[in-house]
Design a protein that fits this description.
By secondary structure, the protein is of the alpha+beta class. It is built from 6 helices and 12 strands.
Length: 249
């Protein structure tokens, strides 16, 4: 089943319901100057009232705005990965950074005329399911997450390193999303778990030597979950249009 949800339709629906999506108070977006050496994305997230990104690609901006992995973004011009931008934006008072993705969507639509729609495509995937012995994840209690939103800001509360992924108050769906980066194929959450969890997954990357098990065994032994191969629908984001040079502030 193919679902096409144009962002403009969603915005119109929100207006009809009397809802006003938050937007940045002030935002500056510029083409990033040429950088040499190993300069990469710099995200400065220490100021609770500001969002700063330096040397970030349009694809990464779209991925953050729509909370989707970059490898699930299709279409668009060939500069989507190569053209870099510097972005600085001020949040409205009493606005949580968990609302930043929505504000980024509005900013990209305004400054870059970005238009997207979502589709569901069937392809090879891994299904993340609960193992025979049940999950071994540490469930986070509601009172523990009361102030977590202010602490973690707009970033996913996970750290990913070679052979290790650790998370704090992470839903199973988000765990499946990050596993997609190391499993070789998209990972779809079929655990049925609705809570949030702490975990620390360690494995030996393929081709390396180490005492930890491989990824698939580590997921079973340490998390009580399992990756099962199959085919299934994967949501992707299709780029309808986007302009390279942003309009003025």
């Amino acid at each position: 089943m193919i679902s096409r949800q144009l962002s403009v339709i969603a915005l119109a629906a929100a207006v009809c319901l009397g809802q006003t999506a938050p937007t940045f108070e002030v935002a500056t977006v510029r083409l990033a100057p040429p950088r040499t050496g190993n300069d990469r994305l710099v995200a400065m997230d220490t100021d609770p009232a500001m969002v700063h990104y330096a040397n970030i690609s349009m694809k990464n901006l779209i991925a953050m705005a729509y909370r989707i992995d970059g490898d699930r973004i299709f279409g668009g011009p060939d500069w989507l990965d190569s053209q870099m931008y510097d972005l600085s934006a001020k949040l409205p008072p009493n606005t949580s950074k968990s609302q930043v993705p929505g504000m980024l969507q509005a900013l990209l639509a305004e400054r870059f005329k970005l238009g997207v729609h979502r589709e569901s495509k069937e392809q090879r995937v891994y299904f993340l399911v609960v193992g025979k012995g049940g999950p071994k994840l540490k469930e986070v209690q509601p009172e523990e997450t009361k102030d977590l939103d202010q602490v973690r800001g707009s970033r996913l509360p996970m750290q990913m390193m070679p052979g290790r992924i650790s998370g704090r108050a992470v839903p199973a769906g988000a765990l499946a999303g990050v596993l997609s980066h190391v499993a070789g194929y998209p990972v779809v959450d079929h655990t049925g778990l609705t809570k949030t969890f702490d975990f620390d997954l360690k494995w030996t990357p393929e081709g390396n030597k180490g005492n930890a098990p491989d990824l698939f065994a580590a997921i079973q032994e340490q998390l009580g979950l399992k990756l099962e191969p199959g085919r299934g629908p994967v949501e992707v984001l299709m780029i309808n249009r986007v302009e390279r040079v942003p309009t003025s502030d």
